[in-house]
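Moderator note: this is an archived Q&A kept for reference. The question asked for a predicted structure of one protein chain; the sequence and the answer are reproduced below.
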Amino acid sequence: MRPEELDRTDPEGAIAAAAARVSNWGRWGEDDVLGTMNFLDDETRRAAAGLVRTGRSFSLSQSFDMDGPQRGWRRRTNPVHTMLDTGTDAVAGIQGFPHGLGGADDVIAMPLQCSTQWDGLGHIFDHGHAWNGRPADRVVTSEGDRITGIETAADVICGRGVLLDVGRVIGESGELPDGFAITEAHLAQTVAAQGSTSEIRRGDIVVVRTGQLSRARRDGWGEYAGGPAPGLSFTTADWLHDTEIAAIATDTWGFEVRPNEFDVAFQPLHQVAIPNIGLFIGEMWDPDALAAACHDDGHYDFFLTAAPIRITGAVGSPVNPVAVR
């Protein structure tokens, strides 16, 4: 049964039922490390290249700097950027290079999920199990994710991107309020309003704009990192599975609606989507400029490349997604 109505008092039951309905364990073999990225095959990727009409490109990344949204939850901080060599050093002649050569170098320290990023398949567990039913303690150890590390997806995340501007279609002034749960019906309404170029196909990378980032950019970060937010309803678990999309990303910190829809819960849709469906989730993406261009000409699909950094054993990665229209 698809849970259009939730029993808010029974998160355990709802999560277990959804996981049983949508599990992809074993679908691509016991050794699979790519989950729903298997839907994004070579032919799907080749066809997506034909979506480029104007050549105009859009970065869907927020900035990586000290002015970011993080507030220290679970030791997540904003990036700390430090210069190791500078023009000041060069002019002062203290770098030790011959014949007038000077240079600059720098270093950055940051959690891998402090700004625009992918959740990898080792990021979330369900009752001690990681993606494909593997015991979590055999997948992610102090050495990192030894099986589904983000590097396994480094060369596959490019294909047809589709923007669902739910904030513009459903919200007031282009924004959904915090706590707004986006249902399958809202997604269908958005597709219908936007037209045929936003119809969802197998292997798509779906980008959902709620408008929360627009609000944070205007009013200040507030509780953007971890606080109330619009997002996907738990009831979309079946849609995420049945559409056979490769990945989904939003302009919010946590992808799903916050507060979550159960009386006692923390990110229940993550618990179903990542370890059971094998779905890649992107968070804190910035689709605003892209959304304006899509609205102007009525085309909502595009070629999208969003490769994670090849960080061995990481359970997530910063990313600079680029949409080309």
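Archived answer notes: The longest helix spans residues 11-22.
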